[in-house]
C-alpha cells in the first residue's frame, strides 16, 4: 500500500504519541496544527490512499441523510434501507466496507454532499486531534496524514524541549 512506511513509523511510536498528546504543551501544539495539516495535505494524495473510506464509516447524521438522498434523488428511507445501519451508539453508519460511495478510482460519488464527518476527517487541523487521544492514535494507524502530523508534532515538541533546556 502507498504510504505504508508512515503507518509503520506511527505503529512504532504509539507510546510516544500518547505521552505527547497527554502531556505535551497543548497550546503550542494547537498553534502548530494548521501549518502541519496543510503540509501533510500537500505531501499526501488522498486519492492514492482512501484508507478512511475503505476501513471506517462516517456517521450519517440526519442533515447528511437528507442532503445525500436529495442529491441521489432517493427517498431518505430508501437511502437508509439500502446503505445504512444503526451502530451501537445509535448512529447511522455504512452497512458495508468499503463505503458504497467510494468509486474505483478512490473518488467519492457524493463528494459535494458527503457527510460532515468525511469533510472533517482526519481532524488534523482541529483540537479534536489533541483532545481525543485514542481516536488520534487509532487514526495514525490507518491515515498517513494523521501519522505525518503526529510525527511532526513529536519533532517540534522535541526541538522545543531542547531549546528550553
Ligand atoms: S461518503 Fe465519500 S468521503 Fe465519505 S466515506 Fe464514503 S466515499 Fe469516503
Ligand atoms: S484522510 Fe487519511 S486515510 Fe483518508 S484518504 Fe486521506 S490520507 Fe488516507
* Strand neighbour order, sheet with most strands: 1-2
Fraction of residues in helix: 55-70%
Give the SSE order as H and E letters. HHHHHHEEHHHH
- Mean pLDDT reading: 95
Explain what you see.
With 165 residues, this protein is mainly alpha-helical. It folds into two domains: 4-51 and 122-163, no CATH class; 59-120, no CATH class. Helix content is 59%, strand content 4%. It has helices at 4-12, 14-23, 26-43, 51-55, 62-71, 76-83, 116-120, 128-131, 133-140, 144-163, and strands at 84-86, 92-94. It has a two-stranded antiparallel sheet with strand order 1-2. Helix 3 packs across helix 10 (144-163) and helix 5 crosses helix 6 (76-83). The protein is elongated and about 55 Å long. It binds iron/sulfur cluster (SF4) (2 copies). One iron/sulfur cluster (SF4) is lined by residues 44, 46, 49-52, 121-122, 142-145.
The gist of it:
The protein has 165 residues and is mainly alpha-helical. The chain is built from 10 helices and 2 strands, in the order ααααααββαααα.
Features:
single chain; 165 residues; mainly alpha; 2 domains; two-stranded antiparallel ribbon; 2 strands; 59% helix; 4% strand; elongated; binds iron/sulfur cluster
